[in-house]
Design brief:
Elements: H1 3-11, H2 18-30, H3 35-48, H4 52-63, E1 79-83, H5 91-101, E2 106-109, H6 120-124, H7 136-145, E3 148-151, H8 159-169, H9 177-190, E4 195-202, H10 211-227, E5 231-238, E6 246-247, H11 249-260, H12 266-282, H13 289-301, H14 304-315, H15 320-324, E7 334-339, E8 344-349, H16 351-361, E9 377-380, E10 387-388, E11 393-399, H17 402-415, E12 416-419, E13 429-433
Parallel strand pairs: 1-4, 2-3, 4-5
Antiparallel strand pairs: 5-13, 6-9, 7-11, 8-10, 8-12, 9-11
The protein binds uracil.
């Protein structure tokens, strides 16, 4: 087999065989197929697409390019969740303890933020001492003994995806639904997931800007799971405005803690209930979404989800004094309210602009590996559809630098649209795929 023939075949819109896909991915992982051939192939895939069968083969080839965790002797069923990325998305911090408190142990590997969307590891690192670099042995031991783990990718999982994603990033080949679906699912499968809730965001602060694209991605990922012998369901959730009120690492941890104490913003609570409910259905703890929601809600009301979160923090070296008294978490030196320029109804709080503003304040990074400031961020006080008076605070900026604060103020005013006509609230969800 020759790599060039595989590229030509895809260029000419033909379906690749399982063997051809495996040959290409194995060769690329070992460095025998060079980047220029992989780039040409990725572009051919972007332009001509792949069938679900080809995409599943690609997913499995990438999943098996490194270690594949087997959690079957450790947990009754290996559950996972994945968000395609958004602004203010601190769902994992609440959902994981809820599911664990409802009786299903979960060990999860999460990622860091890049660009306008935040990352779970960065949020958890706002807690002094919290480790996100557990080894595979530590991961398995904690999962067995404590029943909850939230860390970074420890093992050499799906190295082919790591290599291919870096190449796609610089060759204009990221926005391909088969390449995105296989990239996400290969990592989930390599991490041992058997039941996966996929939170596919759609809107102005999401990767997928249209419902049509989000639905296509969700359907493909659910089909890949099915073909690969796993179970997945996908939620299509709104990401036109930030989720909850807090955007920024320590601010989001504080909001997650308030939610774990059975408070928190209504939209965020609803989001957590929905994700947790579907995980509990996949985990065999609930017969349907309604029962899963009731179970999840009980873990907030009786304090058991909060206890699970505390156990997690303690097990990973975090200082629980900071989560017991979240006012001690890193706080920014400057806080400034951004008032509404006129009265009316909130018509838009552009999630991407809010996310980009948080990056400017220092809460995120433009390039992998850049340091971040856990204290800074934005509190959004309004939701689309709510009435607002002139001069009423719509945002509070938390900053450590005057010039960045001034830039944030300008940008946030651009993110906000106020209408004199009444505006309907945005839906939380646009559908569920794979039920
Ligand atoms: N997230 C991933 O993990 N992979 C992609 O290709 C896009 C988003």
């Amino acid at each position: 087999m020759r790599a060039v023939d595989i590229i030509i075949k895809k260029r000419d819109r033909q379906e690749l065989t399982t063997e051809e896909i495996r040959f290409f991915i194995e060769g690329y992982t070992r460095g025998e197929i060079p980047d220029y051939q992989a780039a040409a192939w990725a572009m051919a895939v972007l332009l001509n697409g792949m069938t679900p069968r080809e995409t599943t083969d690609l997913t499995l080839a990438m999943a098996h390019s490194g270690d594949v965790l087997d959690l079957s002797g450790v947990v009754p069923i290996a559950l996972d969740k994945h968000s395609t990325g958004g602004v203010g998305d601190k769902t994992t911090l609440v959902v994981l303890p809820m599911v664990v408190a409802a009786g299903v142990p979960v060990g999860k590997m999460s990622g860091r933020g890049l660009g306008f969307s935040g990352g779970t590891l960065d949020k958890m690192e706002s807690i002094p001492g919290y480790r996100t670099d557990l080894t595979t042995e530590e991961f398995l031991q904690q999962l067995r003994e404590v029943g909850i783990v939230l860390t970074g990718q420890s093992a050499d999982l799906a190295p082919a995806d790591g290599k291919l994603y870096a190449l796609r990033d610089v060759t204009g080949t990221v926005p391909s639904i088969p390449l995105i679906a296989s990239s996400i699912m290969s990592k989930k499968i390599a991490a041992g997931a058997e039941g996966i809730v996929l939170d596919v965001k759609v809107g102005k602060g999401a990767f997928m800007q249209t419902l049509e694209d989000a639905r296509a991605l969700a359907e493909l990922m659910v089909e890949i799971a099915d073909r690969a012998g796993r179970r997945a369901i996908a939620l299509l959730s709104d990401m036109n405005q930030p989720l909850g009120y807090a955007v920024g690492n320590a601010l989001e941890v504080q909001e997650a803690i308030a939610t774990l104490h059975n408070g928190g913003p209504a939209d965020f609570r609803e989001h957590c209930f929905m994700v947790a409910a579907h995980m509990l259905v996949l985990g065999g703890k609930a017969k349907d979404e309604a029962e899963g929601r009731a179970l999840a809600a009980r873990t907030l009301a009786d304090g058991s989800a909060w206890e699970a979160f505390r156990n997690l923090v303690r097990a990973q070296g975090g200082d629980v004094a900071y989560v017991d008294d979240p006012a001690r978490l890193p706080a920014a030196r400057l806080q400034e309210a951004v008032p509404a320029p006129r009265r009316g109804y909130v018509a838009e709080i552009h999630a991407r602009t809010v996310g980009e503003t948080a990056v400017i304040l220092g809460a995120g990074r433009e390039k992998k590996g850049e340091p971040i400031d856990h204290a800074v961020g934005i509190m959004v006080h309004k939701k689309v559809g709510e009435a607002v008076e002139a001069g009423e605070p719509v945002f509070t900026i938390h900053a450590n630098d005057e010039a960045r604060l001034a830039e944030a103020r300008e940008r946030l005013l651009r993110a906000l649209k106020i209408s004199s006509e009444a505006v309907l609230p945005l839906p939380h969800f646009y559908g569920v795929i794979g039920e």
